[in-house]
C-alpha cells in the first residue's frame, strides 16, 4: 500500500502551529506511515490482572512482563500500549519501540452487577511528558470510557480535556470505548458500537478502539462494523482482538474488519502475548502484513507459519 508523507497527514485544528510537526511525526511513527494502526495492547495486567498472563493455554513466558517488550522488539508493531509505570520500568531497554501510555485503568474485581464501571485517571499529562523528555518514544495516550455507566460523564469530561491537552503537545490519543453498565443490556449491539465511534469523534480522538459488533439479524459482523466506521468519521476505528483464537480465524476476521468493515487497523493483546515469543512475533508480523501492507489472509498465514518473513521494510 502507498505510504503517507507529512503532507498527507490531516492535523486536527486543536493542534497549535508549534506542535503540528510533532503531531505529524508521531502519527507517521504510530501508523508506520500507512495511516493504519497496529496497536499491541499491553494494558491487561491491570484490566484482567494475572489471569491473562498465567494459566491453562497460556505460554509460561507470558508470566514475565518483559515478554511484552521482547515481542514488540522482535516483531512488527505500530505502538506498544501500556500504563505509565510499565513503560517507565522497561523503556530504557527498548528505546526503539513507539509507546502509547494508557492514562486510566481499573481491575475486573468489582463486577457490573455490584457497581457501574469507572476507570479513573491514574496519572497526569506532565508525568507522561517527563517520560518523553527523558528519552522515551511516547507518541500518544490512551483512555477508556464506559458508555452507559452512571460515571460516563466524568470519564467523557476527563477524556475530552486530556485529548485537548495531548494535541497541544503533539501527541495522538486513542480512546477505548465500551458500552457497559446496568443501563446496557447488549454491549456489542451494532448501534451501540456505532454510537461509541461517534462519541470518540466528537471528543476529538485520533483513533477509537471498540469491540467488534455482534448483529442479531444474521448479518456479518464486518458489515455491521462498516456502519461504525462511517460513524467514526475522521477518527480511525480499530477493533479489540479479544481472547486467543487460532491464527487463521483471527487473521480472517482482521482482514474482513479492514476490507469490509472499514477499520483503520487493529488493537490486539491476548491473541499475541499469550503465545511463546517465537509464535507471538510471527503473529505480529502476520497481523502487520494485513494491517500495514494490505496482504491477503493466505500471505499472512504464510508469515505466521514461518514460510516467509515480514519486516518493516515490507511495509
UniProtKB/TrEMBL annotation:
Record organism: Phoenicibacter congonensis
Active site positions, chain numbering: 178 (proton donor), 209 (schiff-base intermediate with dihydroxyacetone-p)
Gene3D superfamilies: Aldolase class I
Similarity field: Belongs to the DeoC/FbaB aldolase family. FbaB subfamily.
Protein name: fructose-bisphosphate aldolase
GO molecular function per UniProt: fructose-bisphosphate aldolase activity
InterPro entries membership: Aldolase_TIM (IPR013785), DeoC/FbaB/LacD_aldolase (IPR002915), DeoC/FbaB_aldolase (IPR050456), FbaB-like (IPR041720)
EC number: 4.1.2.13
Signal sequence, renumbered to the chain: none
Keywords in alphabetical order: Lyase, Schiff base
Lineage: Bacteria, Bacillati, Actinomycetota, Coriobacteriia, Eggerthellales
Keyword DNA-binding: no
NCBIfam families: PRK06852.1
Enzyme class: lyase
Amino acid at each position: 500500500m502507498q505510504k503517507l508523507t507529512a503532507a498527507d497527514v490531516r492535523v486536527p485544528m486543536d493542534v497549535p502551529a508549534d506542535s503540528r510537526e510533532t503531531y505529524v511525526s508521531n502519527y507517521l511513527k504510530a501508523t508506520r506511515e500507512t495511516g493504519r494502526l497496529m496497536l499491541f495492547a499491553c494494558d491487561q495486567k491491570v484490566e484482567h490482572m494475572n489471569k491473562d498472563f498465567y494459566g491453562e493455554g497460556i505460554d509460561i513466558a507470558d508470566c514475565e512482563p518483559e515478554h511484552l517488550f521482547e515481542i514488540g522488539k522482535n516483531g512488527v508493531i505500530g505502538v506498544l500500549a501500556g500504563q505509565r509505570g510499565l513503560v517507565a520500568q522497561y523503556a530504557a531497554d527498548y528505546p526503539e519501540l513507539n509507546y502509547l501510555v494508557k492514562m486510566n485503568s481499573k481491575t475486573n474485581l468489582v463486577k457490573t452487577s455490584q457497581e457501574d464501571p469507572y476507570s479513573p485517571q491514574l496519572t497526569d499529562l506532565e508525568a507522561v511528558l517527563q517520560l518523553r523528555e527523558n528519552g522515551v518514544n511516547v507518541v500518544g495516550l490512551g483512555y477508556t470510557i464506559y458508555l452507559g455507566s452512571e460515571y460516563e460523564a466524568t470519564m467523557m469530561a476527563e477524556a475530552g480535556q486530556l485529548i485537548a491537552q495531548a494535541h497541544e503537545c503533539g501527541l495522538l490519543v486513542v480512546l477505548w470505548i465500551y458500552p457497559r453498565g446496568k443501563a446496557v443490556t447488549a454491549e456489542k449491539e451494532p448501534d451501540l458500537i456505532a454510537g461509541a465511534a461517534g462519541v470518540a469523534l466528537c471528543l476529538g480522538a485520533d483513533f477509537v478502539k471498540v469491540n467488534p459488533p455482534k448483529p442479531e439479524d444474521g448479518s456479518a459482523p464486518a458489515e455491521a462494523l462498516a456502519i461504525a466506521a462511517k460513524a467514526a468519521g475522521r477518527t480511525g476505528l480499530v477493533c479489540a482482538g479479544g481472547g486467543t483464537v487460532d491464527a487463521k480465524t483471527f487473521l480472517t476476521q482482521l482482514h474482513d474488519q479492514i476490507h469490509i468493515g472499514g477499520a483503520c487497523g487493529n488493537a490486539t493483546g491476548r491473541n499475541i502475548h499469550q503465545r511463546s515469543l517465537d509464535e507471538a512475533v510471527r503473529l505480529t508480523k502476520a497481523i502487520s502484513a494485513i494491517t500495514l501492507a494490505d496482504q491477503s489472509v493466505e500471505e499472512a498465514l504464510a508469515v505466521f507459519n514461518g514460510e516467509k518473513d515480514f519486516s518493516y521494510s515490507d511495509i
